[in-house]
Fold this sequence. Notes:
Layout: H1 2-49, H2 64-76, E1 98-100, E2 103-109, E3 116-119, E4 122-125, E5 131-133, E6 138-144, E7 151-157, E8 161-170, E9 179-180, E10 185-189, E11 202-209, E12 212-214
Antiparallel strand pairs: 1-4, 2-3, 4-11, 5-10, 6-7, 6-9, 7-8, 8-10, 8-11, 11-12
Amino acid sequence: MRKKENRGRWKGLRARVNSFLEHQGFLIVISACVSVIIGTAVWTGRQETLPPSPTPPVEQGQSAAQLLQQSLQEAATPAPTPAPTLAPFQAPLAHVVVLCAFDNSRLTVSGVTGVYRVHDAVDLAAETGEKVLAMADGVVSDVQEKGVDGVCVVIGHPGGIEAAYAGLSLCAALRPGDTVQKGQTIGFAGAGPLDERDGESHLHLRVTRDGVAVDPLTLWR
């Protein structure tokens, strides 16, 4: 009797389920599809907001071990020592003794002519006939063989330097346009300019840099 009752209950339950599926099954399928679509959209949006994964560095053609070895080799190799550079100028005489220093700040009077002028040069002691040397490579721009300065050789040197070697007795046959080399004999000391030191033999050396008189001693000291 109980078995019949149980069978009747299961039949009734299946009948109700079948009836529900027949009437509500379409809605269930639609709900499942909508849930799937919404879930997919949410997951896709979450993926877009995540920070991009770091990109591995581009291969540069050298491994870390190779770069380390190169760095060690560079550290072990001493830097080249620059070759010493020689001073571009030298003294125009073998021995330098200053008789009258450079001073363009005040006027001095000549004991010979009584003329006032600034001494924008330097007077160096020199025996008559002593060799006068070019202080640097250059080109002869002028040769004056007569005048109060005695024989005077004017040479253009590097760096905008122009030097007038005055008070010479002879100019070693130089002419404008001739090239001279550092240490070359350009003339011989004579009596000096006529308006200086009562005709005592010396070299009157006047130097300009870009047209402005400068102390000649600063060129080689």
